[in-house]
Amino acid sequence: MTEECRHLRVTGRVQGVAFRAWTKGQAERLGLRGWVRNEDDGSVTAMVCGARKALEEMVTACWQGPGAAEVRDVQSEAAPAEPCDGFEIRR
User: Fold this and answer.
1) Nearest-CA neighbor of 7 among 37, 29, 42?
2) Is 65:74 a contact under the CB 8 Å cutoff?
3) What domains are defined for the chain?
4) Is 48 helix (H, G, I), strand (E, B) or coil?
5) pTM value > 0.85
6) Which residues are tagged catalytic?
7) Coil, strand or helix: which one is 3?
8) Which sequence ranges are marked TM in the entry (predicted)?
9) Residue partners of 25: CB distance under 8 A and separation at least 6
10) What is the pLDDT of residues 3-47, one digit of tens each?
């Protein structure tokens, strides 16, 4: 299996709705590694690494997010791998 990494940027009402915790749960369910964090502009960004199929599922899931979220856009682009164990929530 070849591992790939994607950098995600999710906009809309995605802060204050448990989006980071939800993202961590989704990533762990899909066997992905990486991190998620809130940005000062109100968006949420994440780095996710793993199998292509799992990454595609993650991007699709981000369009829904947790129940209280109102996702406006999900940007996904290829990224170089970052060393990380598991999946963590950063700030």
Assistant:
1) 37
2) no
3) 4-82 (3.30.70.100)
4) strand
5) yes
6) 20, 38
7) coil
8) none
9) none
10) 899 999 999 999 999 999 999 999 999 999 999 999 999 999 999
d(CA 8, CA 10): 6
Number of Cα atoms under 13 Å in the Cβ half of residue 45:
9
Burial-class residue 31 by CB neighbours within 10 Å (0-12, 13-18, 19+). Answer: exposed
Vertex 90 angle, CA 84 and 91, to 5°: 165
Spatial contact of 6 and 40, defined as CB atoms under 8 Å apart: no
